[in-house]
Amino acid sequence: MCGIVGYIGTCQAAPVLLDGLSKLEYRGYDSAGIAVYDGNKIQMQKAMGRLKVLEEMTQNGATLPGTVGIGHTRWATHGAPSDLNAHPHFNKDHSIVVVHNGIIENYLKLKKKLMSKGYEFLSETDTEVIAHMLDYYYNGDPLATITKVMHRMEGSYALGILFRDHPDEVYAVRKDSPLIVGTSKSGNLIASDVPAVLKYTRDVYFLENEGGYEHFMLKEMHEQPKAVKDTLTPRIKNGDVVIEELGMTDEEIRTISKIFIVACGSAYHTGVTAKYVFEKLARIPVEVDLASEFRYRDPILPENTLVVIVSQSGETADTLAALRLAKEKGVRTLGIVNVVGSSIAREADNVMYTWAGPEIAVATTKAYSTQLIAQYLLAMKFAKVRGTVSQNDFDAMIQSLERLPEQISLLLSHKENVQRFANRYLAAEHVFFIGRGIDYAISMEGSLKLKEISYIHSEAYAAGELKHGTISLIEDGTLVIGVLTQPKLYEKTISNMVECKSRGAYLMGLTTFGNYNIEDTADFTVYIPKTDPHFATSLAVIPLQLLG
Ligand code: M6R
Question: Among positive and negative, which fits the CA dihedral 438, 441, 445, 451?
């Protein structure tokens, strides 16, 4: 079994690497090697046979100066034991060097591709393929490059990697092969097993399998359980909803007679869901406005109106202008904002932060999910204070809210199902999303995600409206996605799906576990866990984000 050690710190790396490798000798090996970076050049020394040979060749590491390095003991799998086959392995201009434990199962296919691009191989190992792949995909960003390479490799691996452009960094990643990180005052280490680092530290972390995402949107989608929890948990205390930052007394809440929710894009879509939730729970009329419309239409804002401004960035120009207009008109404003200290956060009378953390992807996912949570909480708070919800229903809703993070995780862990469906439909040119009530709001976001991410034209339609003209666009094979999370509207939407099917549509259903008779109508179905129907958007949006 091979061994890996890596070091970065204030000491000379080579002696640390040799010492660490000696602690891994028990695993068996036939050759060993180290690569050390002195800030100018990555130097390497490898030798077949015992570690002693390498120690003598390098005068116990003295011939390889530098404070950053990686080392390896090899047990031959691909190619006989030899100096050339020993690790580390360089890319062509020696700017990237890698050590590897494990087996790359598709290395021959990858090697063929690299050879067709002009890459020359010095060894018979699968590992050299990794060095050249890193070279091929390198774009100045090691993390992005490694992630790309990982997505192309099949098999198991633990890797230690140095990049000449990044002299202060050692990269480590693993899939199905162990790798640990040790931290100490004089430097940090990576190793394939704990004994290699024990001389230097007892602070050891076990790296998670894989760990990288192909892009930020995927990463942020997977951060949703945490983002939702972080936004929710501090505002639920002893079974009640507590929003201290609301800055409104119960009496003031009771006097509010109208709410406007104003936002753009996906943030607007959360407002569309929130309208249904607010009106149902708190019995207050709610208007949802696109900020770019609101600001130019001289809206009538009666006294006792609350204007809720929703924005991830807190800087969207139309949304900010809408906020300023509402303030000019003298009504109370509340910002629901993700970026702390942003313009909307500063200018709104009160601000309720969503705790999604920085959202890097342009296509929003986790901020959208937290905006929903903030608005559910607000609606529940208003409902409780105004006495429009029973204590039993309120308690059950709190429980449903608290289950959301775990249910979102569950949906994310079954992504292969949606992925297979997406593969089949990637040639689609037009897609319709249909639903009623909250399901219509979900459809709007599903449609936006598909357009934005896959450049496929799509429309969200209130299911009952489709037959008033637009249904003529549905023909053989048109993909229609029916969203059916609202029990009271289920049969109605099913009948709209049947109308589409009679025109030749291919139907995907998105509904709650238990509604299995949908399979009599839909060609393919995705199920979401059961929740209070007011909160179904939080779950149904996940497969639609994945589909996008
Ligand atoms: O930062 P904001 O929430 O104000 O941005 C509003 C929209 O531009 C935004 O929600 C946009 O629609 C999404 N990024 C689309 O995924």
Answer: positive
